[in-house]
Design a protein that fits this description.
Inorganic Pyrophosphatase, 5-stranded mixed barrel, 4-stranded antiparallel β-sheet
Length: about 220
């Protein structure tokens, strides 16, 4: 009896050891493949081959980090592939709770560094259940979280997946009224995931301002590319 128990325990340990990377793995969107263990790509360039805005006012969000996960992947502006970011020689894992939504970027947008931005595409967080990494999600924009990272503008577009219960809200004020606490959760997460004092939040702007910024960032991208 004791021998059987030992075998079971050893078996469980073996499974855990083999699955040690499981918390950092994520399903890939259809049509994407691993170039290597740190790079994924598909037939299209993630930055240049998708439009940021659709005719119905929704955005096309490229999901780099699915809801609830912590592996820090990001799209490369140069080749349009998606890579696991390295920090101090190791694949970066956010040392905090998993992302509170599907995090990613808006294609064909640019926050120019000479205008106070970080030189990257606009960031977006799509509230809702996790989708596969590399998904292109049509999402309803409701507002923008104003953030500063080391003095640089690091705003986050707030959008909602159309399959989320939150999709009944069409603006930041509706989201605040209909689903109390959601905006506070998102703001608290971003203010703290890099450590105290690293990011400074300055409240939310409404949908109209978010759309204005998306259009401006799209125009900036087109002007420079």
């Amino acid at each position: 009896m004791k021998r059987n128990c030992a075998v079971i325990l050893l078996g469980c340990t073996f499974v855990l050891a083999r699955g040690a990377v499981a918390p950092y793995a994520a399903e890939l969107a259809v049509g994407l493949n691993h170039v290597d263990q740190y790079t994924i790509a598909g037939a299209k360039h993630f930055v240049r081959d998708f439009e940021p805005l659709n005719s119905d006012g929704t955005v096309n969000a490229i999901v780099e980090i699915p809801t609830g996960t912590t592996a820090k992947w990001e799209v490369s502006k140069s080749d349009g592939q998606m890579r696991w970011e390295f920090q101090q020689g190791k694949p970066r894992i956010v040392q905090y709770l998993g992302y509170p939504g599907n995090y990613g970027m808006l294609p064909q947008t640019l926050l120019a560094s000479d205008k106070g931005g970080d030189g990257d595409p606009l960031d977006v967080i799509v509230l809702g259940d996790a989708v596969p990494r590399g998904s292109v999600v049509r999402a309803q924009v409701v507002g923008i979280l104003k953030l500063f990272d080391g003095g640089e503008v690091d705003d986050k577009i707030i959008a909602i997946h159309d399959k989320s219960p939150l999709a009944e809200a069409f603006d930041i004020d509706e989201l605040r009224t209909m689903y109390p606490g959601v905006l506070e959760i998102v703001e608290t997460w971003f203010e703290n995931y890099k450590g105290p004092g690293k990011l400074i939040a300055d409240g939310y702007e409404n949908r109209a301002e978010a759309i204005r910024q998306i259009k401006a960032a799209h125009a900036e991208y087109r002007r420079r590319n």
